[in-house]
Amino acid sequence: PSADxxxxxxxxAEVSRRDLAIRWLGHPMPCWASPCRIRMRPDxxxxxxxxxxxxxRGEAFGWQMLLQGPEQQVLDSILPHEITHTxxxxxFRRPLPRWADEGAATLxxxxxxxxxxxxxxxxxxxxxxxxxxxxxxxxxxxxxxxSGVTRLYAQGASLVAYLVHLGGHARFLKFLD
Length: 177
Description:
Elements (H helix, E strand, L loop, with lengths): L2 H23 L11 E5 L6 E9 L2 E10 L2 H22 L5 H9 L4 H17 L5 H6 L7 H31 L1
Parallel strand pairs: 1-3
Antiparallel strand pairs: 2-3
Helix pairs in contact: 1-2, 2-3, 3-6, 4-6
């Protein structure tokens, strides 16, 4: 909606891309052949994001990102979440299991959002509504029910956090290889 907001989002995207690449890969990423188009919709009350791209001949390309919600929430959580998807896509050059991709991306969100995911895990465990690990690992597409998506994100984040805690980011990536 404004050039000023566009500059802030672009600057935050570049910082997130550098910092998250160092966290996950151990080094900054080279520039892409073409830029990632980012569309920002701050007029939406519900925060969210989506990133699309394609894989062909072992390369990821055609980046497009939609971010929506209050500006600060987008900059603190949604943008880093979506940037993590792009970093992992470049690293693996193929789709990742949903639990791993969303779990890793959720770990890039703000402390408040990560605490919300941890509270969700506790609630799922206390009520017995968690997915068995074999079902979580087998999810290929996003569940159609909102509750299934919530479980995927919360349990994926919990599992990725646990595995990263055990062996670090590099070992987690090697596990996914």
